[in-house]
Q: What sequence folds into this?
């Protein structure tokens, strides 16, 4: 079912160790950039909503059931599966460069 797929996808993406670095970086930026707890709460909600789009959009497209959407999702899944290590390496490299540079610059 779509609901089960959504819950499974959300759970797996939340528990994935590769997601810890960007989540920690996002949390650090939010806590540093905002001082008041209401601002922090709002910003965390926006961050979480954007982060969930990676699970929600494919789930909604799959629920639409159109063959064109299903074949596009299958192609995207195949591509992402075969390039997952490269995507993770690029993302972690960007964070590894960006975070110290921002720290040294005092931002």
A:
């Amino acid at each position: 079912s779509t609901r089960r797929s959504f819950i499974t996808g959300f759970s797996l993406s939340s528990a994935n160790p590769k997601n810890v670095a960007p989540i920690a970086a996002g949390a650090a930026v939010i806590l540093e950039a905002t001082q008041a707890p209401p601002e922090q709460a709002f910003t965390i909600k926006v961050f979480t909503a954007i982060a969930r789009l990676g699970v929600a959009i494919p789930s909604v497209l799959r629920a639409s059931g159109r063959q064109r959407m299903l074949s596009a999702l299958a192609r995207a899944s195949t591509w992402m599966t075969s390039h997952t290590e490269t995507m993770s390496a690029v993302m972690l490299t960007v964070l590894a460069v960006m975070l110290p540079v921002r720290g040294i610059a005092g931002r």
Summary: The two ends are 45 Å apart (CA to CA).
